[in-house]
């Protein structure tokens, strides 16, 4: 099963993906984690990515798609992938569909975590204070949220038209959100 967890930065996609990895053995393909690993490596690409993220901008499609494609064999061997933070645009979604189709795969479900934006900003401010992630800086986060809303809004009808979009309240307790996601995946499986 290939699943997309969809929602703005800080909505809890990473938390829910990690839980699904533990319970279902799937591979989490988190573009955020992949990009942070590139930064930590100190490579030229990592330095370029750091500059982009520190400004609150998004990295290019080419970089993100290459990172995803590199990890697909691992996901296939595990029985599926959880896409976390990807795709962000219709162009990325179309590229993902083509990549998967070439491998005899497809996206089975898209779970959208619906959140209240003011509460989300509070959540990120707290996470920044606790973890100090540069991409969680409250000022850059507001830019990331605006970019998310502008760039990813077209994904909703894209996946809704395919009959793959399921919406879940992402503002509840982690366990309540998890139960809602599990209920939607039972229907898909």
Automatic annotation (TrEMBL):
ATP binds at residues 10-15, 127, 172. It is found in: Cytoplasm. One of its GO terms (cellular component) is cytoplasm. AMP binds at residues 31, 36, 57-59, 85-88, 92, 133, 144. It comes from the Bacteria. SUPFAM superfamilies: P-loop containing nucleoside triphosphate hydrolases. Its main location: cytoplasm. One of its GO terms (biological process) is AMP salvage. It catalyses: AMP + ATP = 2 ADP. Consists of three domains, a large central CORE domain and two small peripheral domains, NMPbind and LID, which undergo movements during catalysis. The LID domain closes over the site of phosphoryl transfer upon ATP binding. Assembling and dissambling the active center during each catalytic cycle provides an effective means to prevent ATP hydrolysis. Monomer. This is Adenylate kinase. It comes from Caulobacter endophyticus.
């Amino acid at each position: 099963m290939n699943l997309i967890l969809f929602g703005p930065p800080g909505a809890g996609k990473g938390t829910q993906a990690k839980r699904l990895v533990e319970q279902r053995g799937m591979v989490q393909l988190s573009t955020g984690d992949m990009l942070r690993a590139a930064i930590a490596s100190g490579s030229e690409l990592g330095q370029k990515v750091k500059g982009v993220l520190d400004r609150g901008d998004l990295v290019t499609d080419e970089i993100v798609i290459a990172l995803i494609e590199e990890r697909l064999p691992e996901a296939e061997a595990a029985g599926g992938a959880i896409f976390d933070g990807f795709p962000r645009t219709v162009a990325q979604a179309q590229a993902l569909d083509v990549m998967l189709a070439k491998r005899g795969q497809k996206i089975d479900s898209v779970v959208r975590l619906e959140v209240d934006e003011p509460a989300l900003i509070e959540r990120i401010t707290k996470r920044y204070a606790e973890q100090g992630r540069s991409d969680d800086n409250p000022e850059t986060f507001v830019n990331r949220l605006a970019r998310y809303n502008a760039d990813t809004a077209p994904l909703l009808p894209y996946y809704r038209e395919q009959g793959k979009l399921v919406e879940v309240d992402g503002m509840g307790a982690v366990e309540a959100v998890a139960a809602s996601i599990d209920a939607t995946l039972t229907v898909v499986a």
